[in-house]
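Quick log. Single chain, no ligands specified.
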Amino acid sequence: MPVPACREPVRGRRRDQEEPVVAATVASISMAREQAPAWATTGRGGLLNKVTIRDVAELAHVSQSTVSNYFHKPRKLSDATRERIRRAVETLDFVPNDAARRLRMGENPVIGYLAFELASATTPDIATAIEQRVSARDMYLLMANDTGSRAREREYLHLFEQQRVAGIIVSPAGDVEPELARLRRSGIASVLSARRAVSDAQASVSTDHVAGGRLAVRHLIDLGRRKIGFVGSSLDLRQVADRQRGALSVIEAVPDATLEVISVPERTVEAGIACADRIAARAPGDRPDALFCVNDLLAIGIIQSLTAGGRLRIPDDIAIVGYDDIEFAQSTVVPLSTVRTPHAQLGEAAADLLFEEIAVLRGPAGAAEERSAPHVEFSPELVVRASTGGA
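-> predicted structure:
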């Protein structure tokens, strides 16, 4: 129910005339609330989409543009004006809905971020960097975790489509490029994160994991290690498969070197501990003399287990290299040599690239089809510490 306008002119009103008008305005809005259906209420009993900026302006005896300045440019207002508007806002339980305004303009302020592994030690850094970039644009980040399930991954992409998000950043478990291509045709931009896209039309931000695998194993070979174990989970995850490809490319060039694939069910500290127990139980001649782990969590678990009780010496009996260079890599009982990847920079680049893709889709018709999408690829870096004999 619309709030009736005050019949008396605002200018020239005496203080003793103001209170009855305020009471009448509040009473009118209260009546509208009481007559509204239950589904139309929200918050502390406020009326959904019924109390408007116009109502606040009338109650505070200011223009609607002044109320807008109160929320967006408060320094332009005097202290007295800000106080009047504040009291009106509190009286009416008014909540500005910038999201609704932008939706009416066809600009959803929500970005979707779909990660395959929220428990990963690197995901929080990436997500934080994305959130900071999104927040700077006065937008919002909606995160989802598919736990490595391709079915769940498709469901979340469908959910983001239903919500008509402005764009999606995906750290994929499966092959999502055909689905993302369909979403682009419907107006939803996307960026692959942590994996280079196969299609030239799909924007992506990634790290060269093949090069990372080469760095790790070349370091171990240069130390004189020849029986190298590759500790990792499912090779269905392309990032893991790429690290193995890089490792194999080095092994194949060294005639007396071997690479043993040591499978673990997941990439966690607990899985690393269990893996180390199996390795320690082998006869000395059957053990690898070096391990390349596909992430730092596995390597940390292995170091913890092997050093407990002095079962094996690191790096004398077995050298260990991890991957990612997470915060705890240098503070383990034996500081971990690892391959450093730029987590925060990757998140920032993914967000910035997504905003570019959104702008292209909102630009002239056909512009998106006439260009190759950009691909940003970071180079990894070897960090040598005590687990391979470094300082």
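The chain is about 45% helix and 15% strand.
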